[in-house]
Write a structure and sequence with these properties.
This protein is of the alpha/beta class. The chain is built from 5 helices and 8 strands. The chain has helices at about 5-15, 80-90, 90-105, 115-120, 160-170; strands at about 20-25, 35-40, 55, 60, 65-70, 125-130, 145-150, 150-155. The strands form 2 sheets. It has a 6-stranded mixed β-sheet with strand order 1-4-5-6-7-8, sandwiched between helices. The protein has a two-stranded antiparallel ribbon with strand order 2-3. Helix 2 (about 80-90) packs across helix 3. The longest helix has 14 residues, at about 5-15. The chain starts with a helix and ends with a helix.
């Protein structure tokens, strides 16, 4: 069985090999890259670490596109991540919170980072699921990275914006 840590490493290797810039990470066993904690809009901040927050496994950028990546060890475990990514990309208050978190980490100044306005509008955001097995149907706004023994297949949903589609198709070649 493939572990989430393996999927995480394969995904990280894939993005790195295609010159994407890593902005944040939260791997299964700690990180050497800063985490990006997106606070729930309008909530009182909990004293519990990570409460009322979204933390993506990996966040990458290239040419103004922002990939919000969730890694799993099975396609069957992606349901909650689909909901989380749809909320983060689709809800204006969550997008504003994402932009605030990025600004707080000075990530907009990084090479290839999107403009704050493109994060707030959602134009730069692309939800990405990474897991072993075959692509799932019914995810037209998602990029799916599916792995078999470390080899990736990239499936770009039909509703992913055209300018971002090209960047993600380049991951497979």
């Amino acid at each position: 069985m493939t572990s989430e840590a393996e999927v995480y490493l394969w995904t990280k290797r894939l993005f790195r090999s295609r010159d994407w810039t890593i902005l944040a990470s939260d791997p299964p066993r700690g990180t050497d890259v800063p985490r990006l904690e997106v606070k729930e809009p309008g909530s009182t901040q909990s004293l519990t670490k990570n409460a009322n927050a979204v933390i993506n496994d990996l966040v990458y950028c290239r040419d103004g596109a922002l990939a919000l990546v969730e890694c799993k060890d099975s396609a069957a475990k992606t349901g909650m991540d689909v909901e989380k990514l749809e909320r983060l990309c689709g809800d204006p208050a969550w997008r504003a919170s994402l932009a605030d978190a990025m600004a707080g980490r000075s990530l907009f100044g990084r090479d290839d980072a999107p403009a704050p306005s493109a994060v707030r509008s959602g134009d730069a955001l692309v939800p990405v699921l990474a897991y072993p097995g075959d692509p799932q149907s019914g995810l037209p706004a998602f990029v799916q990275l599916t792995f078999e023994d470390g080899d990736a297949t990239v499936t770009v949903g039909r509703d992913v914006p055209e300018r971002a589609r090209e960047r993600f198709h380049a991951l497979s070649g």
